[in-house]
């Protein structure tokens, strides 16, 4: 269907004459054999050079669903807020009680590191998972 220009139908063309050159824009269309949707090809010619070549293909709605990333985004925001609030509250309580020790600071740092690691894992693209490690 796509070989040798077979199946492509010329749609329209535009001509823009400048002082020293003439620019053209051509558009062809065909039907996708699988989905039946239109595929457009646009070619822009500036003088004697092809300046642009683009294809426009509408992805079928069945494949263009937005993933449920809003749940992951809300969870990420809540996790970051939780980490921040817990860290501030615990540090403030210990500071007010004059119990802010080196061991407590290491423990808080470890807790924040673990929670931040979970947050970073949640932000990975879904296909990567543990294989990135």
Describe the protein.
The chain is an alpha+beta fold and 133 residues long. It folds into two domains: 3-57; 69-126. The protein is built from two helices and four strands. The protein has helices at residues 69-96, 102-123, and strands spanning 9-17, 22-31, 38-46, 49-57. A four-stranded antiparallel beta sheet has the order 1-2-3-4, with no helix packed on it. A hairpin with a 2-residue loop joins β3 and β4 (49-57). α1 runs antiparallel to α2 (102-123). The longest helix has 28 residues, at 69-96. The chain starts with 8 loop residues before the first strand and ends in a 10-residue tail after the last helix. The mean pLDDT is 77.
Write a compact overview of the structure shown.
By secondary structure, the protein is an alpha+beta fold.
Main attributes of the structure:
133 residues; alpha+beta; 4-stranded antiparallel β-sheet; 2 helices; 38% helix; 28% strand; elongated
- The tally of beta strands, per DSSP, is 4
Spans of at least 5 consecutive residues with low confidence:
none
Proportion in helices: 25-40%
Terminal CA distance reads 44 Å
Going across the major beta sheet, what is the strand order? 1-2-3-4
Number of helices: 2
Overall SS class? alpha+beta
Rg calc: 29 Å
Q: Kindly report the average pLDDT value.
A: 77
Secondary structure layout plus pairing:
Layout: E1 9-17, E2 22-31, E3 38-46, E4 49-57, H1 69-96, H2 102-123
Antiparallel strand pairs: 1-2, 2-3, 3-4
């Amino acid at each position: 269907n796509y070989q040798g220009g077979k199946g492509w139908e010329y749609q329209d063309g535009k001509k823009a004459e400048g002082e020293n050159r003439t620019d053209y824009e051509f558009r062809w269309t065909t039907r996708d054999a699988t989905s039946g949707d239109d595929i457009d090809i646009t070619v822009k010619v500036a003088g004697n050079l092809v300046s642009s070549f683009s294809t426009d293909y509408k992805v079928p709605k069945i494949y263009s669903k937005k993933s449920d990333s809003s749940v992951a985004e809300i969870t990420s925001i809540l996790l970051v807020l939780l980490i921040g609030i817990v860290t501030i509250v615990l540090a403030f309580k210990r500071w007010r009680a004059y119990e802010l020790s080196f061991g407590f600071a290491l423990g808080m740092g470890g807790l924040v590191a673990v929670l931040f690691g979970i947050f970073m894992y949640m932000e990975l693209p879904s296909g990567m998972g543990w294989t990135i490690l």
